[in-house]
Amino acid sequence: MKIDILSVIPELLESPFNHSILKRAKEKGLLEVRVFNLRKWAVNDYGQIDDYQYGGGAGMVMMPEPLANAIEELQQEKKYDEIIFMTPDGELFEQKTANLLSMKENILIICGHYKGIDQRIRDHFVTREISIGDYVLSGGELGAAIVVDAIGRLLPGVLNDETSALFDSFQDNLLAPPVYTRPASFRGWEVPEVLLGGDPKKVDEWRLEKSLELTRMKRPNLLSDSDL
After folding, report:
1. I need a labelling partner for 167 at 20 to 30 A (CA). Which of 17, 65, 94, 223 fits?
2. Strand ranges inside the chain, DSSP E
């Protein structure tokens, strides 16, 4: 998979993609992430990529010309399956969206700044708009990092145990069950006996039961009426 990112502050994305699972994905050749500084396509020698909004109002708006030129130049290299704009008014990013995007080959992510981007870019280039929550950040870089991380760990071969992602929270609309490791007894706190018994069927049944229990308690909105 190849993911390109357009950013006004590309330095914000240096660390997230150079450590842990995403670093492993890149080293294995399973994921390629390129971050481009939008100022490369600035409208003048001062590096301008924003201007005042028509109609007045506080805050600057990212201009259409730098974004359009950047997107069209990058499109000469590859055809993007999705051009994503990170924005507070986009669809809420969920596991099912990460699952869907992980099956794409080429993705471009636009990181907004200031009061956002000129609507004409959203109308004519953007294919999907994503929000990571009902709050406003200084820019789209942190949201883009979250999206790339959620997608990258799903790519076949990235995780050492490829079944691990199948049991994460929100797969199948359930929260993950509790997990335990050694020692079996710690300060008198015991690991549930079923996990020590060596019966995979009983373990699976216990995990499903606990997942349903936790989801009913913490996130009942994820369940259908029959599961409540």
Report:
1. 17
2. 2-7, 32-37, 50-52, 60-62, 82-92, 106-111, 128-131, 185-186, 189-190
Q: From the CA atom positions of the chain, what is the Rg in Å?
A: 22
- Superfamily grouping for domain 169-227: tRNA(m1g37)methyltransferase, domain 2 (1.10.1270.20)
Calculate the dihedral angle through the C-alpha atoms of 33, 39, 42, 44, rounding to the nearest 10 degrees.
-160
Mean pLDDT of the chain: 92
Beta bridge partners of 92: 131
- One CATH from 3.40.1280.10, 3.40.640.10, 3.90.550.10, 3.40.50.2300 for 2-152: 3.40.1280.10
Tens-place pLDDT, residues 65-101: 999 999 999 999 999 999 999 999 999 999 999 999 9
